[in-house]
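Example record for the data management plan.
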Amino acid sequence: MASIRCRSSKDSSSWSCSKSDRSTYSSSSKSKAVSNGSNESEMKYLSASMVSRMADTPEEAHDYGTIPTITSHDSSLEEVKCSSESDIETSYDTLGLRSRDKPTSGGVAGDAAKSIGGVSEITEPRHYVPTPSISVPQEMNLLETTIKANSTPKANLLAGLRAADHPEQYVAAAEYLALGRKQIGPSGWETDRSLTLQLYSEGANLAYRTGDTNTMNILLDEVISRPDLTIMEKFRAYEIRIIARQSSDQFRESLTLGIDVLKQLGLPLLKDKPRSIISIVFEYVKTKRALGTRTAEELASLPRLTDERIGMGLRISELLLTSCYQAQPTMFALLVFQMVRATLKHGINVSSSDAFISYGIILCGAFREPQRGREMAKAGQLILEKYEFKKSRATLGADGLIYYWTAPLLDTLLREGHHLGVEFVESRFIYAVEGLIHHWSKPLRDSLEPLREGNRLGMECGDIESAGFNLDFYLARAYYSGCQIGGKAVTEFIDGHIKYQNIEGGHSQRFHITSELDIESYFLAFKKLRGVEIQEDERDFDGILAVANQIGNKSLLGNIYLIQLDLKVFFGEWEEAAEMLHSAGNVQDALFAKYSGVRWTILEALISIQATRFSKKMLTSWKWRQRAYAMLTSWKWRQRAYASVKRVRGWAKKKNPNILHNLHLLDAELASVEGKKKKAISHYRDAIDMAEKNGFLQDQALSSELASLYFDSIGDTRQMSIHRENAIRCYSEWGATAKVEQLRTRTALPTTVQPSTSAMTTCTKTIFT
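Corresponding structural encoding:
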């Protein structure tokens, strides 16, 4: 595979690939994406604004008619290294930023007590995260331990399964199984059906892992179409097909297929349709009663599941959780409730951990029970540890793979923590718990190191989906928790991520499109805040939105809208923000349980308050007919603001440490609109102090900026100047070069500008359409 050569300016956050390099990358990545034709055409853009350096990786040719050879590297670890010794010895901040990683022009206040790049009082050492580096797992020389590896189909199956325990050996593993299929021939279905079934099913999985979708589909069709096989024998093939469809963001198709498998297993079905709040609450009450007051330890001590059919049903339901979350969010809760009650009735298997963790996500995100939610997450963790599920979903025995669907494995079997063809459970566990549960009750920055580890674990075993979600959550947490933006270490982290997706010299397990596009969106935000123009051949937010609409991913759509809304608030583009807030519609379901959903509600409240202020100003300047529209608009925005603030207040009552400063800012803005001077001043002060105390640097800057505007409006020029300079200092330390330049050069700031009649008319018509 040719390397991806990218231009890099002195500003380390400015990365982009040239068109010629992009085309080279596109052609080599087509074989990597498990996707339909339209998705393959989009892959050429993935990571375009993220990757800065890649090393050439030689491709190794394999001959299907000979013994596959597996080479070993001279060293077992490869690290993402700094460019010089001085880089290594320089102190790092939260994201590994060096003190020399400063904007190239302007944006850093010369007289600021703190400036971008150094280890600041806010991002003190207790929040330190080392410069990201990822270790490549050491390859094994399997020929030394596998005797007569090519003499029989069974020997080739076992050799291939052992090789597949290492992602860098996926191609060699696929060749072992291909040789085994060639040896056993078409008559294998009659002479040794069990062996042939594994050669085809696991061969399809390895074809999927290496991006060979044609071979994968041929092998899966062969298994699924055979009338002499039972649904339980076809189960593994169905499982692989569902995973492959999800990896290409075909969530609707995977949901339909999964429901069909449950039907064939003779298990209770859920209809693929949106559900009402009443039905969700009803099922929640049933599940809550079934659980009672059981502790995490009591749940982990439930009997082990022994019904293989029920175990398979739980596994399919577990897979469908991802599809429901992305394509049918209201169905997600009902599926979780069904899984929890099935576990209580029939016993525990590996999917039970996901059931309890997902139930914890619902408790935190929908029913404001963060402590009980963490108890459910603990139950999931104990189940994984008790039965060693963290190592694998399957064990390699003398006759092939034995899955953890039902009873415990016998001690006499060969036990090797084998991860072939299944999600690496620990990586998935980390992003689910750290990304969707813990942020309700602990600081965002506490999740940074676990999420980075989750990304590493997922990459090591080839679970690109979980690795991508961990990286996605990592960047989101770094951004929303106030860590300094930009810096070389972030690009090195992305380089390591991309490097793992190109193991075996051009073959890749899969690209997970959703997380890659999310990551690309955050880097676009970094560029806008740093004042770095995107390159001509790079995709902007509209381009990413087009892809999200094309694949029908509601969660991705909501996150892209959120990032854009966040930028508009920081740059004071309130009128555009109000229009986008309405045009985006209700994204709460799509951002369910994520901190992104919390942030959306906070921004919704801020924008609605600003729109209320604009509407009130229009009452004194418009003609009487237009005043009627302005009054209605003001009332509509006010009601929306109050509803959003009420939700934030409800979360704050549960002691969420990540939103208290935002609640003070919202109360200050409401008080300023209502003319309550003392209350407004008090809440602005508390918002700034609490944001500084908890390390939310960007929110400290925003609160200071809005406070300066308020003092300006009441004629207190001294306080206005103090808070404005504090905003500049904080934005500067955060690394928002473009925002600092805006504050330095503007004589009239956004909220003091009289909104245009045409703009407000558009907003008014939009609201009542």
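Summary line stored alongside the record: The chain has 32 helices and five strands.
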